């Protein structure tokens, strides 16, 4: 008579995670509290809850939309992500550079054709690209540089441009590793 052997199951593995200080803890597959991680995080936030944004898209109203689109696209290197037209006439665009978006819309001049733009407002943009190469590209396009590339005390190399309507954008390349 054949004897029946008991099938041995391997022991369950314990997964551990390092706490960063040399100690380890057992990873949990399920939370000890009820609800999702998002529900737990929401419950633990201070009240009133602070604003949490995923993105911000600045929008400039410009005098000559086609000229501005060319400046941002050909001078700075943005791509046109969307165009908004009304009756076949271009009224606005959404530009994209990396993960960032930026809008331009045609001024309807309801506040006057001679109103100044770009006063008291500036966009600060961080890039991994060389700001010297970017400044060279803008110069070659004929763009206006309001401050030449320079090393800053906080470890960045920065310069600033002014678009055709007077809006300013500062570009910064981190020099810290």
Question: Can you tell me about this structure?
Answer:
This protein has a domain at 59-108 and 118-174: 2,3-Dihydroxybiphenyl 1,2-Dioxygenase, domain 1 (Roll), CATH 3.10.180. It has 3 helices and 10 strands, in the order ββαβαββββαβββ. The chain has helices at residues 37-44, 65-76, 131-141, and strands at 16-18, 24-26, 59-62, 79-86, 89-97, 100-106, 122-127, 144-151, 156-162, 168-174. A hairpin with a 2-residue loop joins strand 5 (89-97) and strand 6. Helix 2 (65-76) crosses helix 3 (131-141).
List keywords for this structure.
single chain, globular, alpha+beta, 4-stranded mixed sheet, 2,3-Dihydroxybiphenyl 1,2-Dioxygenase, domain 1, 177 residues
CATH topology call of one domain: 2,3-Dihydroxybiphenyl 1,2-Dioxygenase, domain 1
Sheet with the most strands, sense and barrel status: 4 strands, mixed
**Whole-number mean pLDDT:** 83
CATH homologous superfamily identity of one domain: 2,3-Dihydroxybiphenyl 1,2-Dioxygenase, domain 1
Helix content percent band = 10-25%
Major sheet strand order: 3-6-5-4
Our measurement of the CA-to-CA distance between the termini, rounded to an integer number of angstroms, reads 73 Å
Named CATH architecture of one domain: Roll
Strand content: 35-45%
Number of helices: 3
Oligomer: single chain
**C-alpha Rg (nearest Å):** 27 Å
Q: Would you count the extended β strands for me?
A: 10
CATH top level assignment of one domain: Alpha Beta
In one word, what is the shape? globular
Order of H and E elements = EEHEHEEEEHEEE
- Category by helix and strand content: alpha+beta
Low-confidence regions: none
């Amino acid at each position: 008579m054949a004897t029946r052997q008991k099938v041995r199951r391997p022991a369950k593995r314990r997964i551990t995670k390092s706490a960063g200080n040399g100690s380890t803890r057992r990873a949990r597959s399920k939370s000890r509290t009820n609800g999702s991680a998002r529900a737990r995080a929401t419950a633990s936030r201070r009240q009133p809850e602070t604003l949490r944004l995923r993105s911000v898209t600045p929008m400039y109203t410009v005098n000559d939309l086609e000229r501005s689109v060319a400046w941002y696209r050909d001078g700075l290197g943005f791509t046109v992500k969307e165009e908004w037209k009304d009756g076949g006439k271009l009224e606005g665009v959404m530009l994209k550079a990396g993960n960032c978006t930026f809008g331009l819309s045609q001024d309807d001049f309801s506040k006057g054709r001679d109103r100044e733009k770009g006063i008291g407002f500036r966009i600060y943009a961080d890039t991994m690209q060389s700001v010297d190469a970017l400044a060279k590209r803008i110069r070659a396009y004929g763009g206006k540089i309001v401050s030449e590339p320079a090393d800053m005390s906080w470890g960045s190399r920065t310069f600033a441009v002014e678009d055709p309507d007077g809006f300013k954008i500062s570009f910064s390349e981190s020099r810290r590793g």
